[in-house]
Amino acid sequence: MTSRTVEELLYHMPTVARLAESDWARVFAQSILRQRKRRNWRPSPKQLSVMHALVSDLFACGSNEGGDFDVIE
Prior knowledge:
73 residues, mainly alpha
């Protein structure tokens, strides 16, 4: 598992919100996006761990939508 900076995690939150597979993850990411607009806001340790997990899941999910295709023989 790679350690990502808070800025990197925040950068990926819009994508997490858009592609989330669960309503909870989508709402969480949207909430983080709203909170980040507050002056001097920093995620709590619990929020940070959830953000790490969601971004890791974002990159761990292999899908066929990225341009790869199955070979038909």
